[in-house]
């Protein structure tokens, strides 16, 4: 499970995205890369729409409960997996990741190819 301040902040973010249906920009700069694991979190957010192990199973139950009526009204079966997928898709649709960094160095280019694949690279200088 993703623990600590980072995990709690991400749980608050995903609650806003999925339960409260808030469109949100997640700004991530090269100054936020204190450790390599942060890039892995952003990579997972971009590729799957969710940070793995962010929630324990009992925490997931309250989240799927919050979207149950909406998901059923959209024609989904009220199974746990279908409701969780609905929640993750809703989060993914509401999340806009903005990365402001210079893609310099082997770490960013080689280890996080998906991260670069899902990003629009701009060489603009402001």
3D structure, described in words:
By secondary structure, this protein is mainly α. The protein has one domain (4-117): P-loop containing nucleotide triphosphate hydrolases (Rossmann fold, 3-Layer(aba) Sandwich). The chain is built from six helices and two strands, in the order αβαααβαα. It has helices at residues 4-18, 36-47, 57-73, 80-94, 106-111, 113-117, and strands at 24-29, 95-100. It has a two-stranded parallel sheet with strand order 1-2. Helix 1 crosses helix 4. The mean pLDDT is 82.
Q: How much is the average pLDDT? A: 82
Number of domains: 1
In spatial order, strands of the major sheet run: 1-2
Task: Determine the CATH superfamily.
Answer: P-loop containing nucleotide triphosphate hydrolases
**Parts with pLDDT < 50 across at least 5 consecutive residues:** none
Run of helices and strands:
HEHHHEHH
* SS elements, strand count: 2
CATH topology: Rossmann fold
Q: Tell the overall outline.
A: elongated
The share of residues in helices is 55-70%
| Sheet with most strands | 2 strands, parallel
CATH class: Alpha Beta
Rounded to the nearest angstrom, the distance between the terminal CA atoms is 38 Å
SS field, number of helical segments: 6
Tell me the CATH architecture: 3-Layer(aba) Sandwich
What would you call the structural class? Answer: mainly alpha
Rg on CA atoms, Å: 16 Å
Portion of residues in beta strands equals 5-15%
């Amino acid at each position: 499970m993703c623990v600590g301040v980072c995990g709690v902040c991400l749980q608050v973010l995903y609650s806003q995205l999925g339960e409260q249906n808030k469109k949100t920009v997640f700004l991530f700069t090269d100054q936020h890369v204190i450790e390599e694991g942060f890039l892995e979190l952003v990579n997972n957010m971009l590729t799957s729409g969710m940070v793995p192990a962010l929630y324990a199973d009992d925490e997931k139950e309250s989240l799927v409960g919050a979207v149950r009526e909406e998901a059923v009204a959209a024609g989904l079966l009220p199974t746990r997996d279908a409701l969780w997928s609905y929640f993750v898709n809703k989060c993914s649709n509401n999340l806009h990741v903005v990365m402001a960094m210079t893609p310099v160095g082997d770490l960013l280019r080689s280890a996080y190819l998906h991260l670069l694949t899902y990003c629009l690279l701009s060489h603009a200088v402001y």
